[in-house]
Amino acid sequence: MALGDDSLAALLERTAARTPAPGGGSAAAVTAAIAAALTEMAASYAHDAAATASRARALRASLLELAEQDTASYAPVLEALALETSDPRRPAAVARALSDAAHVPTQIVEQAAEVARLAGGCAAAAGPHLAGDAAAATVLAEAAAASAGALVALNLAGSGGDPRVLEAAARVREAGEQRELALALTRSSTLR
Q1: 63-115: per-residue pLDDT in tens?
Q2: pTM (2 decimals)?
Q3: Cis (ω within 30 of 0) for the bond into 22?
Q4: Which pLDDT tens digit goes with each residue over 3-56?
Q5: What topology does CATH give the domain 24-188?
Q6: Dihedral angle sign, alpha carbons of residues 150, 155, 157, 159
Q7: Element (H, E) at 174
Q8: If you average pLDDT over residues 123-136, what whole number do you get?
């Protein structure tokens, strides 16, 4: 069964199980998908935000697919690590598998940062009754981006300066900026 088809309770059980996947990447993608859903909801109330709602809906679907893809992305790393340490193919196999395993978390970082940008715009446009939901979306999106960014950095730590590490860090910073802006709006909003 696909992660997106699980009930929340079943997803949490699968994540808590003593298995390699789903793990941090899938959790980050699902968190970003929740942020996208909140963004979509807030945008649906905002004036002239149909494009934002539509893009948030597309990101939500894509992030759920990335959560599913992530469940399989680390298996080749485990297979490469299982090679005998004396096997001359092992170092290259491990490096290649780790590089490949960074692909899905890199996409999660990028999409989570986009969700944070969309949610930040909603926080400004949605009004005080929805500013909290949009701000929550930015917080969740930043957390997802930071979590996936940590996986990118971990997978590529031995790669000798892979640019994906710096790109992921930049997207995480952008998501953090959106979080700060959205939270500042909630502090200055008054519900009536």
Answers
A1: 999 999 998 888 898 899 999 999 999 999 999 999 999 999 999 999 999 99
A2: 0.91
A3: yes
A4: 777 788 887 888 888 988 788 999 999 999 999 999 999 998 877 788 999 999
A5: Four Helix Bundle (Hemerythrin (Met), subunit A) (1.20.120)
A6: negative
A7: helix 163-188
A8: 84
Q: Please tell me the distance from the alpha carbon of residue 142 to that of residue 83, in angstroms, as a whole number.
A: 36
Do 105 and 28 meet the contact criterion of CB atoms below 8 Å apart?
A: yes
Neighbour count for residue 157 (Cβ, 10 Å):
11
| Tokens describing residue 157 | 């730590």
> Domain-by-domain residue ranges, the chain?
24-188
Please list, residue by residue across 27-61, b when 16 or more beta carbons sit within 10 angstroms of its beta carbon and e when fewer do.
bbbbbbbbbbbbbbbbbbbbeebeebbebbbebbe
Which residue has tokens 């994906």?
A: 164
Cα–Cα distances in Å, from 121 out to 34, 47, 53, 116, 169? Answer: 17, 12, 11, 9, 21
Task: Look up tokens 């494009």; give the residue.
Answer: 51
Q: Give me 143's structure tokens.
A: 């957390």
